From TrEMBL:
<protein>
    <submittedName>
        <fullName>Histidine kinase</fullName>
    </submittedName>
</protein>
<keyword id="KW-0812">Transmembrane</keyword>
<feature type="transmembrane region" description="Helical">
    <location>
        <begin position="46"/>
        <end position="69"/>
    </location>
</feature>
<keyword id="KW-0418">Kinase</keyword>
<feature type="transmembrane region" description="Helical">
    <location>
        <begin position="89"/>
        <end position="108"/>
    </location>
</feature>
<dbReference type="InterPro" id="IPR036890">
    <property type="entry name" value="HATPase_C_sf"/>
</dbReference>
<feature type="transmembrane region" description="Helical">
    <location>
        <begin position="14"/>
        <end position="34"/>
    </location>
</feature>
<dbReference type="Pfam" id="PF06580">
    <property type="entry name" value="His_kinase"/>
</dbReference>
<keyword id="KW-1133">Transmembrane helix</keyword>
<keyword id="KW-0472">Membrane</keyword>
<feature type="domain" description="Signal transduction histidine kinase internal region">
    <location>
        <begin position="129"/>
        <end position="208"/>
    </location>
</feature>
<dbReference type="InterPro" id="IPR010559">
    <property type="entry name" value="Sig_transdc_His_kin_internal"/>
</dbReference>
<keyword id="KW-0808">Transferase</keyword>
<dbReference type="GO" id="GO:0016301">
    <property type="term" value="F:kinase activity"/>
</dbReference>
<dbReference type="InterPro" id="IPR050640">
    <property type="entry name" value="Bact_2-comp_sensor_kinase"/>
</dbReference>
Length: 318
């Protein structure tokens, strides 16, 4: 404003007073606009209202500016004032329109960010609820089988039934401690899996043997909680239920290039009818958990090599 007044040959002191008053007035109007439109987001049909408001605020700013200038400057020096009012209105209108546009777009970005954050939190809650539900669905199946085995052992082998009860108690206690976490270390997961295998070995006796193959560096890697149990349970189900001789389930873990690879292999009888039964819930639940945690569907693969069934699980180390 001062530059325009100076260019129009207005006296320097008058131009300075005028510029200061105009700047203070526009600052107050801009603050009023920011306070009034802090949470206002117009729809596509209401953008014309912004121009109407800008025109109203421009008239108010020009009126206030003229009133204040009259109070500080002598009447003899106010000849230029009325002549400059249309120019002041145009300049103030453009400035106010820019301020309102920036304010509205800022509000839109804040709203988009807030909506995105709420959506991510909602999706996270849904994922956690589904993951918890998948884990809880796996436990009753194992619990019922174990209780049935305990009942069967009570009469013939009460000592083994008693030991199995204690082992089941330790296993369930460890499971409850893991309900609030999604990930654990390989060391804790293997220890928890060993409790499960101890129970299964009581059920199947000498027919079930397991072999672990891993290096010490693998124990510190992170892995989803209770992701191995359904794989081993699947190996036991299809490895022992239709085989009469001893069955060895091999579990190998390898960590390379920030990728934890787990291979679980078990023998099976391909010509048994029972081999074709089952819903495959254990493997499908693992696939679903891995997708929810990592957004990938290629982390679990299964294959057969002769009469050996192999499950390969890959866990990225984030």
């Amino acid at each position: 404003m001062y530059g325009l007044l100076w260019w129009s040959k207005i006296a320097r002191d008058i131009a300075i007073y005028d510029a200061i008053i105009s700047a203070m007035c526009m600052t107050g109007i801009s603050y009023l606009i920011f306070s009034s439109l802090q949470y206002y987001i117009p729809n596509n049909r209401n953008y014309w209202k912004l121009f109407g408001l800008a025109a109203i605020f421009a008239v108010i700013s020009v009126t206030i500016t003229r009133f204040l200038i009259v109070q500080f400057i002598n009447d003899d020096n106010l000849i230029y004032l009325n002549f400059s009012l249309p120019f002041r209105f145009v300049i103030n209108f453009l400035i106010i329109t820019c301020v309102m546009t920036i304010n509205v777009f800022w509000n839109i970005q804040e709203e988009l960010f807030s909506n995105k954050k709420r959506k991510e939190e909602s999706e996270k809650m849904v994922r956690e609820a589904e993951l918890y539900n998948l884990r809880q669905q796996l436990q009753p199946h194992f619990l019922f089988n174990s209780l049935n085995s305990i009942i069967a052992l009570i009469g013939s082998k009460p000592t083994e039934a008693r030991n199995m009860t204690f082992q089941l108690s330790d296993f369930l206690r460890g499971t409850m401690r893991k309900d609030d976490t999604q990930f654990t270390s390989v060391e804790e997961e293997v220890a928890h899996l060993s409790l499960y295998l101890d129970i299964e070995k009581v059920r199947f006796g000498h027919r079930l043997s397991t072999e672990f193959d891993y290096d010490e560096e693998v124990l510190g890697a992170k892995i989803p909680v209770m992701i191995l149990q359904p794989l081993v349970e699947n190996a036991i189900k299809f490895g022992l239920y239709n085989v009469t001789e001893e069955v060895i389930i091999k579990i190998s873990l390898n960590l390379e290039n920030q990728l934890l690879t787990i291979r679980i292999s078990n023998p099976f009888e391909a010509d048994q009818y029972e081999q074709k039964k089952g819903t495959g819930f254990g493997l499908s639940s693992i696939q679903r958990r891995l997708y929810l945690l990592y957004g990938r569907t290629d982390l679990l693969q299964t294959e057969t090599d002769g009469n050996i069934f192999i499950s390969t699980l890959r866990i990225p180390q984030l």
